[in-house]
Amino acid sequence: MQGIGVIGKPNSGKSTFFASATLADVEIASYPFTTIEPNVGIGFVRGRCPCSLLEEPCGKCVDGTRMVPMKMVDVAGLVPGAHEGRGLGNEFLSEAMQLDGLLHIVDLSGKSDEEGRAVPQHDPNQDVAFIKNEVEEWIVGLMLRDWSRIRKGSDPIEKISDRLSGIRIEQGEVKKALLDLGYDEKKSNTWDLRKMASKLLEFSKPILICANKCDLVGRKDFENFKTKVKNAMPTSAMCELALRRGASLGYIDYSPGGSSFKVIREMTPKQRAGLDYIESFFETWINTGVQDAIEKMVYELLGMIAVYPVENENEFTDKDGNVLPDVFLVEKGTTAKGLAYKVHTDLGEKFIRAIDCKTGRVIGADHELKDGDVIKIAAGR
Ligand SMILES: Nc1nc2c(ncn2[C@@H]2O[C@H](COP(=O)(O)OP(=O)(O)O)[C@@H](O)[C@H]2O)c(=O)[nH]1
Ligand SMILES: [Mg+2]
Question: Which residue among 69, 106, 237, 344 has its CA within the 20 to 30 Å range from the CA of 4?
Fold first, then answer.
């Protein structure tokens, strides 16, 4: 998995969202939850830890919840005309399109225009439309670079896939998109590149709308917004960041995705006022939505599952005795051998068989893995 990105216009809250998502006061295996480069960091999704099957807890999960790491990228702000290079839009779009899925952070408060400048009123639906437009036009531009060659002769699917391989859109996805649009290889087809771009995005680069700054509006405003943008989730990146900072500094108990927090250390009146704001936020909203949005993207829209490779099938340990040392996010449908390749190319090449450690059963190369599987891979020398 390459990771997920946050995109949107300037000032919608992308960096706040990214900072909150990549801040956690835990360090797991080789993944400190922190920023790798200014705009690249490690976030996580929650998973049920398989250590409940062991006599002793693994020590890496919190009450049975394991944080499964995943790369996140804070893509710089996109403005209208980005696909033509406005505001370095080309570069930013090309960075975003390397990723598996995108969270589009929309400013639901309506207090900033399409360029992120403060205004009294702005319709957030317009932002959903303009970002979609920029992303689609950028893909159209990519296909156009080769279009005369693609339309001539045979195998347009293969040629389009070639053109799009740089942004990791696979041949199967191109085929699915074209068939869905009524493409028929036996007939002469008319091509609507814009519709193709839209379909390709639908099948291979899901975009989830995060209606951010929901703390500044009421539920009704969100419901209104949602009538036009079906898959939107309400988020308050600012509240999530404050909560995670408070937790990492030891002032409060809070677990990401939670619906409350508990004060555990004395604080200044200013800090207290900040928490009062969040307390009233929780009266209207179930949670900040940040963790839920990430998990909806990873588990639902991208269809990922979390699997745990180990070396000892009874103890769930690696060769040094670390319990459940690693966890990988892989696509649904990944096989035992596929996992072996993800752990190490060598392990894939020398794969003999695997063991489903929860049941103790031997499984073959083509066995499809399930979420939460603990897998031992046996390989030759
Ligand atoms: N009230 C509120 N403000 C937010 C929220 N998220 C971000 N902001 C504020 O919006 C401004 C722009 O945020 P930033 O993350 O820098 O936006 P970016 O340009 O999209 O990266 C900052 O003042 C943030 O504190 C939110 O959920 N609620
Ligand atoms: Mg920013």
Answer: 344
Which CATH entry fits the domain spanning 4-135+206-299: 3.40.630.30, 3.40.50.11030, 3.40.190.290, 3.40.50.300?
Answer: 3.40.50.300
CB of 203 closer than 8 Å to CB of 181: no
pTM of the complete model: 0.94
Q: How far is the CA of 10 from the centre of ligand 2 (A)?
A: 7
Residues of the chain with CATH 3.40.50.300: 4-135+206-299
The finding on whether 112 has its CB within 6 A of some atom of ligand 1 is: no
Question: Helices 156-164 and 171-180: crossing angle, nearest 10°?
Answer: 120
Which ligand lies nearest to the CA atom of residue 14 in the structure? 1
In the chain, list all ranges with CATH 3.10.20.30. Answer: 304-379
**Which of 73, 238, 245 maximizes ligand 1 atoms within 8 Å of its Cβ, making it the mutation to test the pocket?**
238
For ligand 1, what atom is nearest to the CA of residue 74?
Answer: 21
Any idea which architecture 304-379 has in CATH?
A: Roll (3.10)
Give the residue whose CA is nearest to atom 7 of ligand 1: 13
Going from the C-alpha of 9 to that of each of 84, 117, 313, 353, the distances in angstroms are 15, 10, 48, 49
| Full strand arrangement of the beta sheet holding 374-379 | 328-331, 304-310, 374-379, 351-356, 361-363
Per-residue pLDDT at 24: 67
List pLDDT tens digits, range 288-315: 999 999 999 999 999 999 999 999 999 9
Residue nearest to atom 12 of ligand 1 (CA): 11
